[in-house]
Amino acid sequence: xxxxxxxxxxxxxxxxxxxxxxxxxxxxxxxxxxxxxxxxxxxxxxxxxxxxxxxxxxxxxxxxxxxxxxxxxxxxxxxxxxxxxxxxxxxxxxxxxxxxxxxxxxxxxxxxxxxxxxxxxxxxxxxxxxxxxxxxxxxxxxxxxxxxxxxxxxxxxxxxxxxxxxxxxxxxxxxxxxxxxxxxxxxxxxxxxxxxxxxxxxxxxxxxxxxxxxxxxxxxxxxxxxxxxxxxxxxxxxxxxxxxxxxxxxxxxxxxxxxxxxxxxxxxxxxxxxxxxxxxxxxxxxxxxxxxxxxxxxxxxxxxxxxxxxxxxxxxxxxxxxxxxxxxxxxxxxxxxxxxxxxxxxxxxxxxxxxxxxxxxxxxxxxxxxxxxxxxxxxxxxxxxxxxxxxxxxxxxxxxxxxxxxxxxxxxxxxxxxxxxxxxxxxxxxxxxxxxxxxxxxxxxxxxxxxxxxxxxxxxxxxxxxxxxxxxxxxxxxxxxxxxxxxxxxxxxxxxxxxxxxxxxxxxxxxxxx
Length: 514
What we know:
Shape: elongated
Number of strands: 18
Number of helices: 22
Strand content: 15-25%
Largest sheet: 5 strands, parallel
């Protein structure tokens, strides 16, 4: 008997690694052993494989079967190795011909059906990058796998059909079995329709302007105001102002959603920026990522290239909020667990919404507020200084007046604002492309104070704010980024004094007095 060999992909976070699967059939008592750090779901594959092969008309050998997954030091998890192990065993028994450098990724049902698995898009991307473009997947995963450029994907519904194409004897195969065409990804391509429109927001001219600036430069935003002022309405309309994702960005976002098992990634690339709105009772693992074994992505990674909205932000646990400080700076989340380390992209726009106090009535004169000064301070102190220092725009949203509320439909719609945002983004791409950057929010301080340095007269107000301790060095750079975004929206080549002043007022109200 020959040694069977196939290939599959192991995912660690969003990174995929090529795994060589060897199978050997010994001359001893019946047994089935899988080596190479398999987890519980992979160890259970032994029974799935035996039943699937038997019901497909190609029962496995009754002798000892040893399957080895190389590299042995790399943890293997999930049911996606079922098909690769099965094909390797069938090859070791000379039931099929060699499969060459083909990669197999699918779960097996007991009836011989090939079932879809999570994370097929990043797995196929890793296979193509490793120089293995020929890939076999379950038919339900075919549309998603075919999104990867350069991949030569084949989809099958049953093991018997695959074995036939691999040279198995057709007289033995159960080719008459055709499973119901009930693909888990069937409803994924539905058009979600138009999103919420900015025309629905009455009044709030200052908040609407802040939202436009945030969209144009990919800046983070904090909205503070009483209940019912429109903070949530504004945040929900931010994704509609953002431009469509470029090819590489769309591939990154779709890969994350595929790994999470979300149906939105099943049949086409996600071109619209995602929007995540977790409840304030969510744990750190739900927002940052984690879980048992190798950590899985959380809401922060699912919001990659989109918007992460935390409504009632002071109600979140402080450690959850402070855990966002790393991805706000680096655009990546690295999660360490005893079972391994996973890195997920997390370059999102953070939008925080908060009431001015626990009862929410401390705005304006605050005559109806029943909270003590200590309660107000304790409530807002849950948003730590280091976190707020990373938020570019911090705006107080006031209640809508009766006159503004009665002018329904009189405001600009999303399409008109999005057009200005797109023009500003185009100017940023033209200016920052030589640095490998896309938006003003990504520009590091060395470029702001180097190639893009402004005249000392323009930054005098910022210099005074820094000297008086009103701005930190990080805040100084973030005001400059905001000023560049305001200049892009105004179709100016460089920020002027007015842009600097507006950026400083958007940064924090206490800075205006500087």
